[in-house]
Every structure is written in C-alpha cells, then in structure tokens.
Amino acid sequence: MKDILISGSRIKTELKFLLYSYIAANLVNVYAILNYNTSWIELLTWQRLIILIAFVFYITTVIIRLIFFAIKRLFRKTERVKS
Amino acid sequence: MLQQDRRTFLKNSLLAGTAMITPISLMKVLANDGKNEAIRKDKIFVGVIGTGSRGHHLASLIKEFGHEIGMEVTALCDVYQPHLENTHSMIPEAKTYNDYRRMLDEARELHGVIICTPLHVHAQPTIDAMEKGLHVFCEKAMARTLDDTYAMAEAHYRTGKALHIGHQRLFDPKFLRGMNKVYEGELGKVTQIRAYWHRNNDWRRPIPEDQPELERFINWRLYREYSCGLLTELASHHIQVANWVKKDIPIDVRGTGSISFWKDGREVEDNVALIFTYKDGTQFIYDSMIQNRRHGLEIQVLGHKGSLELETNSFFLEEPPPPPKPAGIVQLLQDLEENVLGKIPIGSSSWDPEVAMTYKGDSVVPENLTDGTWEQFTGFAKAIREDKPIPGLFEEGYYSSIWTLLGQQAIDTGKVIKMAEKYDISKFLK
Which pTM was predicted? Predict the structure, then answer.
C-alpha cells in the first residue's frame, strides 16, 4: 500500500481554514445573541455547538475547494489537448 | 423515616411563616421537633385507650420516635384482650388495663391520653380524662352524635385541657405550604373545592371463626349505631381541609348515598356524595366509594389563578409561566430549520375541546417526606408541656366532626341541612 504524504504547507492551509471556520461560527453566535437578545455568557456556554458548527463550515469549505480544483483540473486538461 | 432530613426540611423550607388558623404556632412546633435537649429530658407519659389497628400504630410510632420529643407510652387499655396483648408485646413496660376509668385513677404519672376506641366510645373517655386534668389526643371523627361532640368541646373549654383531634393534614408539610399559597392569593379566589376518596375493598376486618358474635364489635365501622362509615372515617379529613382553606364553616350541606355494591348486611353506605356550600358561594363537592380505586384520593382547591391537588403535592397555575427561552444560537438554528423546511398547513379546528390541561404543574413542597401523622405528636407534646392547647387546633377538628355528622343527616333525610345554633362554639372563644 502506498504511503500518503501530507506536506507541511497543506497542514498549515487546512489549519487556517479550520481557524476561519471557528471564527465564523463564533460570529454567527454573536449575531444570534444580538438578534435574539440572549445572554453573552452563551459565547462560552455553547462552545460545544459552536465547535460542531465550525466543523460543518470547514467540511463545507473542503467540498467547495474539491469542486473548485476538479473544475480547474478539467480546464487544464482541455487546454493541453488543444495545444 | 429520615429523621434529620425531615426536621431540616420542616425547619428550613416549610415553616417560613404562614397566616392561617393555627399555622405559626404549628410551624414553630414542627421546627423545634426534638431539638431541645432540656425538653426531651422532661419526659411525657401517655396512655393509649383503644389498642386496635390505629391505637397500635400510634403506639408503635411513639415507641420508635418518642425519644425525639421525650414521649413514652406507660399505660395501655382495651376491653378486647387480643388487641391489648398485641400492643403490650410491643411495649412490655407499659401497664395494662381493661377499664379506662381504672387507668385514669391508677396511672398517676400520666400527662395525657391517646384515644383510639371505636367512634361511639370517644366521648366519655375524652371527657373523663380532661376532667382528671389530662390532655387528650383523640382520633377523628370526634364522636358518633352531635351532642357527644358538643359535650367534648364543652369539657375542653371548661377544663382548659388540650383536645387534639387526629387530623394529620394539619401537620402535613404539603398542606401547610398549600394553605400558604391559598392565603397569599396565589390561587386567586377559590370558588370550588373537590375531594374524593375511593377504595376497592369490603372494608371488613377478620373476626375469629369461632366467635361470630364479635362481628359488630370488630366491624363497628359498618354499623350505624357506632359509625357513619365513609363519612366519619374518611370524609372528615377532607371536610377539615375544606374549612381550613375557606377559614370558615359551611352554611349548609346536601347529599345522597347508598349501599350499592357491598350488600353484606352492613348498615353504612358504600357510595356517598355531598355538596357543602359556604357563605361566599364556594362549593365543596365530595364523594367516596369502596368499589373502585382508579382515582384513589385527592382534594382539589380551585381558584381563578391556580389549583392545588394537595394529596399528590401538586400546584398548577391557570396561566403556566412560559418556558425559558433557548440560547440565541439554538433559536437561530430553529428559525433556519423552519424557514427551510417550512410548515405544512393541514387545516384547523374552529373549536378546541376543553380537555384538561396537559401541563404537569409544580410540587407544593420539594420533597414529600411525611404525612403529618407523627408530627401531630410534636404538637401534642408541646401542648402538654405548656399545659395549654395550641390555639385554633381544636376548632378545626370540632367543625369537621360536626359537618361530617350533618352530612350524614343530609343523606338520611334528603334535605338541605344547616347547623343548629347550639353547636356553635364561638361563644367559648370570646
């Protein structure tokens, strides 16, 4: 079986996406607290749900990126055939 | 029984101060339950007259928990030797008697007596004991006749001795707290009280096979000469609570009853229904039967803002408080879900049937640890030590017994019955 190698820059990129997702989930929580006029303590007490939402956002970015790279690869292939 | 828990509970959560007929003094009595070492050393000696099932039970409670209040049973009396021997085997140090008059004469160390004889023989021992200078705890109802009941009251006021009637709900934490709610207006205006007590048994006690002549003696609850059956043995408890809620007595009672199932030679009804009316228009609706136990027992106090179901420790508001709002993030997700999935209208009814509310209500007291049976003796011990009755306590038992007997009259005559003025005891209270 072939070993899968993940480069350092890839890990760094993925961690960045995870961090952005976590920040976005917290921003959603801030919006919800303001919109529904609930307690700011929820920023701490609902962290489990926020982490779950962060993972949902991260998985969404993974899917979007996979689709993006798949389309990009398809275009490159077509250009190579033409030339 | 968890003694420490019960005491702490009573002291901390119940006795925060009430304002009904007897409560503050009752609650202080309960809060000091067994705490004062000096009081416990100052022993109280009591005699039990009538050692059948109830007398035996109360004697066993004093044997087990009497050390808390410094109370001891030192004399036992019964005309029925098997009952006397049974209780004596539990308390062998107590002296035994077959005649209560001998017990009152000879047992000079007694401070009080507990009377658990059949109903028709409550009055004379009670009066004789008070005249001998003893305080009396008498099981409910007070007596078989109105005149006997009144004679007991007259002796109580004349001698100044305590006469406690065994209405344990007066000492039951959930009833005490429930009365707080009524008096503080949490229920709004109470205009109806409903109570029922349903059992499914023949209410008979076994008699020795070789002594059929003991039928009326042992099963005295089934014969009119000695008892009013379901009314004196069960209803009197809930009549007391209804009067307590209203801080009043009814103006009249109407009722009906029948022997509809247990047609075995008994003379008391096995199925009764009564309506008591109070002067502000409140109705107290009561029924009792012994051929179906589906609904057990309950007393419901119904006000325009809320209801109490005291036997099951429940309190309901007419407008239940809204549930706490969920967290903002949860509301946001719920809104998203609703917007995405939407709601599918499937028509609506133009009329909602008025079925019972499904809201489960709250508890009256957080923990239902006791029914007040033992706590009555805490009050009795206090009255003996202070050599004076707890104010208001006797009147609760008296009017409950009077209106129980008037309820029987209403069933017997088919008429609306009022209390004759001669049974009014307010003249003694002036």
Answer: 0.79
> Residue B16: what pLDDT?
34
For the record, the structure tokens of B185 come out as: 């207006």
Q: Report yes or no: A56 and A24 within 8 Å, Cβ to Cβ.
A: no
Which long-range CB contacts under 8 A does B88-92 form with residues at least 24 apart? Answer: B88/B51, B90/B56, B90/B59, B90/B60, B90/B63, B91/B59, B91/B63
CB B305 within 8 Å of CB B317: yes
- Chain A residues in contact with chain B using a Cβ-Cβ cutoff of 8 Å: 28-29, 31-38, 42, 45-46, 49-50, 53
Average pLDDT of B122-145? Answer: 98
Select from B86, B92, B54 the least CA-distant residue to B73.
B92
Is the torsion defined by CA of A37, A40, A43, A45 positive or negative? negative
Domain architecture of chain B: domains with CATH: 3-170+372-400 (3.40.50.720), 174-320+356-370+405-429 (3.30.360.10)
Rounded CA separation B170/B159 (Å): 24
Q: What is the DSSP string of B154-210?
A: HHHHHH---EEE--GGGG-HHHHHHHHHHHTTTT-SEEEEEEEEE-BS-------TT
Closest CA–CA distance from residue B334 to any residue of chain A (Å): 11
| C-beta atoms of A42 and B329 within 8 A | yes
pLDDT per position as a tens digit, B265-321: 999 999 999 999 999 999 999 999 999 999 999 999 999 999 999 999 999 999 887
CA distance B111 to B135: 7
